């Protein structure tokens, strides 16, 4: 990268050697404000229409947002009409504040106030960019002149308050690009704006929203800026400190979390981080990060797939498969060691009543977010025996004995390696069935009869080979022992049973027996499985399967 010299180091840090935020903990939810319908919407190639906005607004209310920025009413007729519809059709829950954004220009302010007349609860949000870059490039004005835009805009808005008689009105001011503004100047503008609005006279607190409009530093620098601002603002109890981060450096979430440690009270963001360029802060992630630290976020994401589907339909955006919490693949392990650990964790969870969720590689219970356990393990050539046996157990109820896992895992791995792709659960099952279950060549059990006399069991079995059917007989202390002796007497010998397991599969009249038998032949272990409605038949098939597999090698 030969052009690094084009970019200069970040210049707007504060000097805060006694910073306190690194020792703080996130132990309560902030006030949340969704800006999906404004900042998110303004970044869409095709902004939402009124119907989509209505559906989205309902979604935000259902999730539990109490402050929702519903638009920039002076921007377009659609924005204006949507807000009017919300108010005129009484669609806003009584405990929800709608928020509207405007520049500090009189005709836009006036139109904004017109848009919200009659609303029960309103946040009037005005922004003026304060950064050096904006002052020089956009406004071409000095610090004092830019401050005057903010103060004059605030004064003008205040003169219109009588038009909102009967509404609960809060004022929000954003020094846009706060993070790239000289800290003293940002503080000075905000102080002047709050003094102009004078919350002691108007009532309520002023929301001072301090955005990283474009990210420009590491999150710790932003946290310092927020802590410094909170400490130095005169009349901290007259304001709510709000943060509004973007994600240009991919650290929108981190910036928000550190800024909360640094003293911010309120967070603006969007679902899944839709917004300008690389997006706004993803509120879902911050809220669920709190949740997974044991803090109730006060927002309900227990049906994330449904929220995601409404989001995708209304915005036309899609969610990356690895998007935190919401992506298709975030609860899926393909790799063997992860699968092994997840299977062990899930097995323990079934056996023990645990106080805390503790599954390696699954930081959150998928079911808490409306996801299932179905896809937590998927099989490809990176997968191992633990994952394969998890699928067989969870999807097909097959309790493959632990010592057999490596044999099944190897077969499945070979198939996936050969196909160079993921295997469906059905394919995993097929590999298991075809390679281990009821293997009937060269020897097949056609029929058998068991007789019991005292403790002795005798068997007569018809065994079909590729040429003919032979009847063999044997005695033993149980059916399997008798069958082994019958086989050995016929000369199909030179093996020992070294392991045996059985299970019932299914319920009621459709219950089947599954037997797993391991024989050792010439020092090598071979596992076979028998599946039958009859328990003894299942065991005999398991033994023959193991024997047949040893013959194939
Ligand atoms: C960081 C953010 O996301 S801020 C929100 C951004 N969102 C949007 O812009 C979406 C909605 N915006 C719009 O529909 C339009 O831009 C409107 C309606 C606000 C204004 O429209 P127009 O006046 O036609 O155009 P435009 O936005 O280009 O206006 C630029 C002028 O506003 C001035 N301006 C920009 N921001 C502000 C502000 N916050 N307060 C006062 N004046 C401002 C500029 O300096 C410029 O002035 P100039 O003409 O003297 O150079
Ligand atoms: C209007 C402000 C808060 C904004 O959207 C930003 O700075 O990103």
UniProtKB/TrEMBL annotation:
Gene: leuA
Main location as per UniProt: cytoplasm
GO MF annotation terms: 2-isopropylmalate synthase activity
Domain Pyruvate carboxyltransferase: 30-305
PANTHER family the record matches: 2-ISOPROPYLMALATE SYNTHASE, PTHR46911
Cofactor: Mg(2+)
Name used for this protein in its record: 2-isopropylmalate synthase
Organism: Rarispira pelagica
Key words, A-Z: Acyltransferase, Amino-acid biosynthesis, Branched-chain amino acid biosynthesis, Cytoplasm, Leucine biosynthesis, Magnesium, Metal-binding, Transferase
Family in the record: Belongs to the alpha-IPM synthase/homocitrate synthase family. LeuA type 2 subfamily.
Job of this protein: Catalyzes the condensation of the acetyl group of acetyl-CoA with 3-methyl-2-oxobutanoate (2-ketoisovalerate) to form 3-carboxy-3-hydroxy-4-methylpentanoate (2-isopropylmalate).
E.C. designation(s): 2.3.3.13
Pfam family, one: IPMS_D2
Quaternary structure (record): Homodimer.
Pathway membership, UniProt: Amino-acid biosynthesis; L-leucine biosynthesis; L-leucine from 3-methyl-2-oxobutanoate: step 1/4
Known catalytic reactions: 3-methyl-2-oxobutanoate + acetyl-CoA + H2O = (2S)-2-isopropylmalate + CoA + H(+)
Binding-site positions, Mg(2+): 39, 244, 246, 280
HAMAP family, per the entry: LeuA_type2 (MF_00572)
